[in-house]
Amino acid sequence: MKPVRIFGLEPAAILYAVNAAVALLVSYGLDLTRDQVSAVTVIVTGVLAAAVAALTRPVVVSTITGAAATVLTAMAAFGFELTADQIGATVTALSIVLALLLRQNVSPTPVTTRA
Q1: Rounded Cα distance, 106 and 115, in Å
Q2: Half-sphere exposure of residue 33: CA atoms within 13 angstroms, side-chain side
């Protein structure tokens, strides 16, 4: 099985590049707190996890929604704070949308009998 690639790179390579870029920017004076630096890593990891889940077949909706919940929670480090109820409602709505979109593209496998 071929590894999933995004922009021609494996997701781990993208994550390493983002971490290096953030470290470089912070060393040159970008004013981020430790929590914000950590949140950047969590957000990028969540986005990459969702992308990999969307590119993998069969698509696993719970993986995408779990990544979305992680990203929404990490956004609190930048002042975008949501309550647990708001995150739950957002993830539920995302699950419904994904299920409706995926259902259009999925059909049952025909039953074959062995002779």
Answers
A1: 28
A2: 7
**Which amino acid type is present at position 49?**
A
Q: For the range 40-45, what are the long-range contacts, defined as Cβ-Cβ under 8 Å and sequence gap of 24 or more?
A: 41/15, 42/70, 42/71, 42/74, 43/71, 43/74, 43/75, 44/14, 44/15, 44/18, 45/15, 45/70
Report yes or no: 94 and 68 within 8 Å, Cβ to Cβ.
yes
For residue 48, which phi and psi values (nearest 5 degrees)?
-65, -40
pLDDT tens digits, residue range 71-99? Answer: 988 998 888 888 889 988 998 898 888 88
Its pTM stands at 0.69
Rounded to the nearest 10 degrees, the angle between the axes of helix 61-74 and helix 84-104 is 150
User: Which residues lie across from 6 on neighbouring strands?
Assistant: 9
Helices (H), the chain: 11-27, 34-55, 61-74, 84-104
**Residue 58: cis peptide before it, omega within 30 degrees of 0:** yes
